[in-house]
Amino acid sequence: MKLPHIVLITGTDTGVGKTVTTAALASALQAEGRSVAVYKPCQSGAAAGDSDCTEIIRLAGPLTAEAGVVLQKPLAPVPAAALDGVKLPPLAAHAARVRELASTHDHVLVEGSGGLLVELDADGGTLADLGGHLGRDATFVLVARPALGTLNHTALTLEALDRRELAVQGVVLGAWPDEPGVLEHGNRATIGLLRPLIGVLPERAADLPPVTFREASTHWLSGAWS
Predict the structure, then answer these.
(1) Active-site positions?
(2) Hey, which residues does 109 pair with through a beta bridge?
(3) pLDDT tens digits, one per residue of 17-38
(4) What 3 state SS string does the chain have?
(5) Is the dihedral angle over the CA atoms 31, 56, 145, 159 positive or is it negative?
(6) What is the CA radius of gyration of the chain?
(7) Are 42 and 88 in contact (CB under 8 A)?
(8) Are 53 and 40 within 8 A, CB to CB?
(9) Each residue of 128-187: pLDDT tens digit?
(10) How far apart are CA 183 and CA 57, in angstroms?
(11) What is the C-alpha to C-alpha distance for residues 37 and 109, in angstroms, rounded to an integer?
């Protein structure tokens, strides 16, 4: 399985591990000698110190990482922009920047906000729509939880991607517990039947020393290269 030049990382929900998955993908690709850029269309929560780009650089090491727009409140982009009095860039602007980055890097990783259908601009455009703008040059990686409720959330998100005829590389479990039980193992097996399970990241992976994180990333995401 060859990873395309543009990879959009989405999740079944917020807080499922999209940022740590993006960092792990960046680390694994850089370990193979590939140049990587990370693009976050909308970063919210800046007033609280949130910066997914900064976290990715901390974990993955030096790389190009930027946000299309930075918003202060820890809300979805549209309400956060309304409170800030900021006009959100249209999806076409994000797509153009991703293509620019792709022209100078081997891979561009695009991290979404929240789930697949969270609105990113005033016209209701979503990460799914951004994938449509990018066309055949792009694929999606879906980050899911291993916990209760994940099967429905994962199946719904995959269905939404399939209905739009968007390519899906596979699913990553973003926070595998230290002591998984019958529930987690069962969910892992079922998700693997829905779509290729290309990675499993341990809980608290972001707490590891960056050097350890980078060394382990290729192992965690071994399914992405098989």
Answers:
(1) 40
(2) 7, 38
(3) 999 999 999 999 999 999 999 9
(4) CCCCCEEEEEECCCCCCHHHHHHHHHHHHHHCCCCEEEEEEEECCHHHCCCHHHHHHHHHCCCEEEEEEECCCCCCHHHHHHHHCCCCCCHHHHHHHHHHHHCCCCEEEEEEEEECCCECCCCCCEHHHHHHHHHHHEEEEEEECCCCCHHHHHHHHHHHHHHCCCCEEEEEEEEECCCCCHHHHHHHHHHHHHCCEEEEEECCHHHCCHHHHHHHHHHHCHHHCC
(5) negative
(6) 16
(7) yes
(8) yes
(9) 999 999 998 899 999 999 999 999 999 999 999 999 999 999 999 999 999 999 999 999
(10) 34
(11) 6
Distance CA(49)–CA(45), nearest Å, equals 7
Q: Which amino acid is at 122?
A: A
